[in-house]
Amino acid sequence: MLIHACIILRALRLCAITFMTATGKWFIYVVTVLIWGSTWYAIELQLGVVHPVVSIAHRFAVAGVVVLVGLSISGRLVRIRWRDQRFLMLQGLLLFSGNYIFIYTGTQTLPSGLVSLVFSMMVITNMVAGRIFMNLPLSWYVGVSGLVGMAGIALIFTPEVASFSLADESLNAMFLCFIGTCLASLGNIVAARNMRERLPPLQCNMMGMLYGSGSLYLLSLVMGLPITIEWSSQYLGSLFYLSLIGSVAAFWFYVTLIGEVGPSRAGYIALLTPLVALVISAVFEDYQWTWYATAGLVLVLGGNFIAMRRD
């Protein structure tokens, strides 16, 4: 495990060096989209025996411990002031804990398409939060790109959007997903603040994941949820993929991306990950593409071009 942790960290360090070029930014952007798009399928493999809150806690606990061991062995673990520790704790509670609780709760009622539509609003919420908390300029092209992309997501999931009704629990579930999206945006802003203070992003994520997983374990105890693990190859395989690839790698890339292009444009990843999830679903779950989905794909990609064209 220790050797594997060092190998992973060295590989990620090489990717971070590559990231400093303009081509590298696009490379990391695409890799992050591909990774997070694939995590939806991995999450489905975890559903069943272990409660989702406990599975999320396992995911970030494993990720945090692996990075902690790797940084300790490589001698790159630095001391962080208490003033900054508070922001790392806040980043953990927002980005690695609270947003998952609300979105997972809403997902139990809403179809995945509507969840993706609500989460795609992060392009807008990131821009608004950046303006309020970091005095970042409002960008009309990022706003337009977000609206275009959201329209594309709505087209892709037309049947699910059309079936939405205010008569059942769907409205409450959508509101929960929106709260989760807002918490994720606030977590992005805290991450951007930590990047601005020149804190090491990998260590920030590691500490945030440990804070987040600790809060989730505590919540599990309060809710009376059994803290168990399923010892099947499917569960353990998906757990390690979500921890090492979907968390250690993807969140490091994403937080670095926030520091390079800003939270607004980095947030556009929320619009692209459902597309990757649909491609995987078409391969493994016999998802059938429609003309609506194709038109939506064009809009999402067009919006992405608008958002990133000045890079």
UniProtKB/TrEMBL annotation:
Its main location: membrane. It is found in: Membrane. SUPFAM superfamilies: Multidrug resistance efflux transporter EmrE (SSF103481). It is a multi-pass membrane protein. Coiled coil: none annotated. Residues 30-158, 176-307 form the EamA domain. GO terms for cellular component: membrane. The chain crosses the membrane at residues 56-75, 87-107, 113-133, 140-158, 170-190, 210-229, 235-254, 266-284, 290-307. Pfam families: EamA (PF00892). Belongs to the EamA transporter family. This is Permease of the drug/metabolite transporter (DMT) superfamily.
